[in-house]
Hints:
This protein is an alpha/beta fold. It is 34% helix and 21% strand. The protein has helices at 31-42, 45-60, 63-68, 71-89, 95-110, 116-120, 153-165, 214-219, 225-236, 251-259, 302-309, 326-334, 350-362, 370-380, 443-447, and strands at 124-130, 134-139, 142-145, 177-181, 187-191, 201-205, 241-245, 268-272, 284-288, 316-319, 342-346, 383-389, 395-407, 410-424, 430-436. Strand 12 (383-389) and strand 13 (395-407) form a beta hairpin. Helix 2 packs across helix 5 (95-110) and helix 11 (302-309) packs parallel to helix 12 (326-334). The N and C termini lie far apart (64 Å). The model is unreliable at 5-37 (pLDDT under 50).
Amino acid sequence: MSFLFNNSSKDPRPPVSVDVVQLPHEEPKTEINRVHGDLMAKRPRLLDEKLKLHGLIVDEFNLNLLEKLSPEEMHRQVKAYVGNYIRTERIALNQKELDTFTEEVIAEMTGFGPIEPLLKDPTVSDILINTHTLCFVERFGKLERTNVRFKDEAHLLRIINKIVSGIGRRVDEASPMVDARLPDGSRVNVAIRPIAVDGPMVSIRKFSERPFNLERLIEVDALRPAMADLLKAAVRGRVSLVISGGTGTGKTTMLNALSDCIPDDERLITIEDAAELQLQQLHVGRMETRPPNAEGKGEVRQRDLVKNALRMRPDRIIIGECRGDEAFDMLQAMNTGHEGSMTTVHANSPRDALKRLEQMVAMSGMGLPIPSIRAQIASAITVVMQLQRMPDGRRRLTSIDEIRGMEGDVIQMHEIFKFVKEQTDAKGNLVGHFEASGIRPQFLQDLKPYGIELPNGLFEPGRRL
């Protein structure tokens, strides 16, 4: 292994005594979290040893050669070095603990330290770090505390800087908030001191290795086949859509699922603050905003990207989340030959989503009167979908509404399908059903020339789906 080392020598280190301490914690639900979490929780001093080892490896290994090795060879080299260190320091570890400790050291070197096992755990959808002392995850819609811990605030900040520097962003006292993404596409939000009073806070929305489509959303009871058929028809027929919902309701997941229905011969341009959409089409151009630099210059906003996208010959423009004055340009695009475009909006109901769009268009500084803004919205958007996260943690499509134009100064909107809440069972699960309102969407008439037609029986009043 000597060819990997720089020419340096170290004095023998004195033995280290590691006490076994049982910390109070909830029992994690997966093996990967249990093995990694319990080892550091039961033996806190190992966290110090892991960080010390990381420093020694940085000093002693030839990192340029190390990066050229295959993962298997690097694992073998590091494991041999860790094993020698454990023997020198007289740390009592069995073979399983040694393997786990080695994985922890490698994660600290090449990954994102203590949260690496959580990033690899397919049952985890969100990772929420509240300072270096607390880490929670969401599994199946429920939050639970983990045994993941950082040595101190400096350790957590080192991991944060590794995340944000990977996409050319920064976080410091002058710029204490940042949106970023991991190499796999997972979305990251960071807040540090002084705005995070008790210490750094990190929220990670994990990237799904298996992209969602409407069929998979049916499997998890987020909607019914009849609703999926209507949405497929709308997307293929180039109907412009807005997906509304609160934080964590699955808006981006639904946007990904709907995009799967777009024909492969169309050119798509996506615009996001932090790129996370997983479009499966071949002809996709992805654009991402950029924050200002240390001098306050170089910012690229979503509105700038929407304007630029219009010059790129898109068939559809997909905005990950509409949150500001770019709403005006989005509506203009939908009204000028880019039908079938989509976006998401933070709102608690379809009617609230339209009000939010009004407010965002007003932010553009164009000075348009409210009736004119509403007329633009009614002309540009045809379908508004509402997503909701239920008390039991499940996410459902609770309403599909069609905009049918203006009546005076009011946008006319009719509900096509809805979710009806019934009761909560003994296990805390919300029981309910999906049903049709009895109104057949008008836009289906425009889809007939494209060979898209749905049976009238789909929309019978009160029909359970």
